[in-house]
Amino acid sequence: MYDEVSTGPLYDKAFQLLSTYRSVAARMSNARSSTQGKLDRRLEQLSERIAETLGELTDDELMALDCWKDGVVPGLYEVDHAALVEKPYVSIRKITRWPEEYDVADMAQPSDNNTDTTAAESSLLKKFLSVRDDDEL
Question: Which of 74, 79, 84, 96 is such that its CA lies 20 to 30 A from the CA of 51?
């Protein structure tokens, strides 16, 4: 079971920015030193844009995203760089699932309708399997 959160275009923009940040951060580890400077500046720009976008999201949209943390000043947010780099293949969208609760007694009782149709289907299947082709005789 899960809850769906209605999101808007700002949520999509924040998700895209976080995805871009993750891919640039992944390139940083294998880049040459001259390229690392450029990538570092790009990461700073992205983190600023992400912080601005996260500040514009609703509380529900914020809770639907992963890999961000509260900033030093209340009401401001920033990228959780460690979480993005640590979990490169985990979704940025928060997915929380929990088992659906149900009564075992309700699930265990077979209905009378299912028993009748099962017996009828079984007899039809036996009849079909007992029929021989005329060619075999």
Answer: 96
Considering the domain boundaries, does residue 24 fall inside one?
yes
Q: Which range marks the domain in which residue 43 is found?
A: 9-86
Of 14, 17, 25, 16, nearest to 83 (Cα)? 25
> Of how many residues is the chain composed?
137
pLDDT, tens digit, for every residue of 32-76?
988 888 999 998 999 889 888 888 888 888 787 877 777 777 777
